[in-house]
Design a protein that fits this description.
The chain has 4 helices and 4 strands, in the order E-H-E-H-E-H-H-E. The protein is an alpha/beta fold.
């Protein structure tokens, strides 16, 4: 089972991905529309993908990390100058974006 870590926002993402890559193992990252007070994301694709992704976590090695990143509210995300869209580390085009950061490539 993968080590699951959840963060909110770009700075928290940067901090945690840097920490996790130092521990060894691959880091899987899912960028998702942030959740409301009921725990539901504003992004319908994210809502659909989350149970599928969560179902796969048990198949991953114990030294693997899964980093769930909330990208903010819908208005923040839709701004074309959103840091998740413009930063060279991410350059996201859709909110439900999955990526793998292999320790050898960091």
């Amino acid at each position: 089972m993968a080590n699951v870590v959840k963060v909110e926002g770009f700075e928290a993402f940067q901090t945690r991905v840097a920490e996790l890559t130092k521990t060894g193992g691959d880091v899987f990252v899912m960028f998702s529309g942030s959740k409301d007070s009921n725990g539901v994301s504003w992004c319908p694709d994210c809502v659909d993908a989350e149970p599928v992704v969560n179902g796969c976590l048990s198949t991953l090695a114990s030294d693997t990390h899964y980093l769930y990143v909330g990208v903010g509210g819908r208005d923040f995300w839709k701004d074309q100058n959103c840091v998740f869209r413009t930063a060279k580390e991410t350059q996201l085009k859709t909110s439900r974006t999955d990526c793998v950061r292999e320790k050898e490539k960091i």
